[in-house]
Amino acid sequence: KRKLLIRQHEDAKELKENLDRRERLVYDILASYLSEENMADYEHFVKMKSALIIEQRKLEDKIKLGEEQLKCLMDSLPMDQRTTN
Q: Which residues span the membrane (predicted)?
């Protein structure tokens, strides 16, 4: 199990390095075509997109947890007190 985790961590690091390299390449290409203002907008967009994806995943996890908790609560009720929506 430890070896698997180490290998997964190494794979993740390699993927991150490749992603960073591609990001720099795209940035350099765009910088040669866009104004400073447009580049600032692009950088802001990329940062916000990442932040929103993280927030979306957190919210999805909370929703899933809430649904699981609701199911457990419903399952703990006597049959005659259960309602379905």
A: none
pTM over 0.70: no
What are the structure tokens assigned to 40, written together? Answer: 């600032």
Closest CA to 53 of 64, 45, 65: 45
- In the chain, where the domains are located: 1-33, 36-78
**Cα 23 to Cα 29: distance, rounded to the nearest angstrom:** 10
Decide: 83 and 70 in contact? Cβ < 8 Å.
no
The residue type at 61: D
pLDDT bin (cut points 50, 70, 90) of residue 85 is: low
